[in-house]
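Morning. Coffee machine broken again, so started the prediction first thing and wrote up yesterday's gels while waiting. Chain of 254 residues, entered below exactly as on the submission form.
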Amino acid sequence: MQIPTGRFVWFEYVSTDSAKAQGFFGELFNWSTQAVPMPDGAYTMIALDKDTTIGGYMATPKGAPTHAHWLPHLQVTDAAATLAKVEANGGKTAAKPWKLGEVGTMAVALDPLGGVFALWQPTKPMGTGDWKGVANSWCWNELYTEDPAKSVEFYKQIGGFTDAAMDMGPMGTYHVLKSDGHDRGGVMKSPMPGIPQNWTPYVQVADADAVVAKAKRLGADIKLPPNDVAGIGRIALFLDPQGAPIGILQPATK
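Came back before lunch.
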């Protein structure tokens, strides 16, 4: 069975206070949780409803970056072989591959500039990685970096992506990583100086202004207030109360 690669299929929130994160995001996006028994204890998944899970919460493991962050899972056919590619292209191993029961095999890597991401080799395909159109779910994944060219080349080698570059004027060049004819993620010069290299997922919302106002009341640090991007929609960026960046998108109406 062929495992489709070049797509982000899961996001985990990694921090030292999962309960605080669950409270914040549950209030902000109406996310609930589902506990799943695991060999080393229960795993808490992020649920949109009783039938749809989109991510999870993880306590910061040994060797992981200590700052709170979202950990995107890049689906691969062979986690060990891809990890060897990571190291051959200037990245590092954060956690060697390990089996998660009958579900699949996982590894954690750092790109050459320190951005953390997971390699996920599922036992069977997990879907397309396309969430667009689903309220309060993921709609995009974006890497903020001080060296876009170096980062793009690395992820092309690791994920088999192609790069579609777009001139964004004063913001510089925006790189769209593509696979199987679909846009899978973006890479751009960091708009938030001082934030470590980090993948930032975006959540689709109905009202960006209302969500940002609520996030601020709940303790978020707003880095980019809601603003319109032609042909895309209304976006905003903020740091949650533990300092992890996250974006929101109110899609443009057609």
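The mean pLDDT is 90. Going to sketch it on the whiteboard this afternoon.
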